Amino acid sequence: MLERIFVLGILFILALIFQKRFKSIKIKKPLYLPENISFKDSALPTVLYFWTDDCVQCRVSQKPVLNNLKKAHNNFNIIEVNAVKEQELTSLFNIKTVPSTVIFSNDGSSKFINNGFADMNKLIKQLEETKD
């Protein structure tokens, strides 16, 4: 019995490590923003924010973080994408859940994909890394 609990504990820890490791992905082969997407300033990095009407975490958590980030650091663009209505974009960036964010450098190449909620510190760090 004790061995089973030990094995379950190890499996749980491995699942947590796996989930944390793959929730935010640094992209090795970038995708580019489609040309039909327009944004305010092409010299700035861009956050593509995927949401849906019935996503509570989108309204309660991710949207306020993005709004606060925009107030504190007005050096990036935000493009909001309804994941249900924009299936082509959702598929292009392999979005599996909402909220999700894709971070682009100022050249339009994708750098990070965050499946699920991304806090302000993570987004600031990723936006800063797009300047490297």
Could you characterize what this model shows?
This protein is α+β, with helices and mostly antiparallel strands. The protein has one domain: 3-Layer(aba) Sandwich (Glutaredoxin), CATH 3.40.30. The protein contains four helices and five strands. A five-stranded mixed β-sheet has the order 1-5-4-2-3. The protein is elongated.
In the CATH hierarchy, the architecture is: 3-Layer(aba) Sandwich
Strand order of the largest sheet: 1-5-4-2-3
Spans of at least 5 consecutive residues whose pLDDT stays below 50 are none
- Mean pLDDT score, rounded? 84
Instruction: Give me the number of helical elements.
Output: 4
The CATH homologous superfamily is called: Glutaredoxin
Shape: elongated
Distance between the termini: 52 Å
Secondary-structure-based class equals alpha+beta
The CATH class label is: Alpha Beta
Q: CATH topology, which one?
A: Glutaredoxin
Tally of DSSP β-strands:
5
| Tally of structural domains | 1
Radius of gyration: 17 Å
The fraction of residues in strands falls at: 15-25%
H-E string: HEEHEHEEH
Q: Helix fraction? A: 40-55%
Largest sheet: 5 strands, mixed
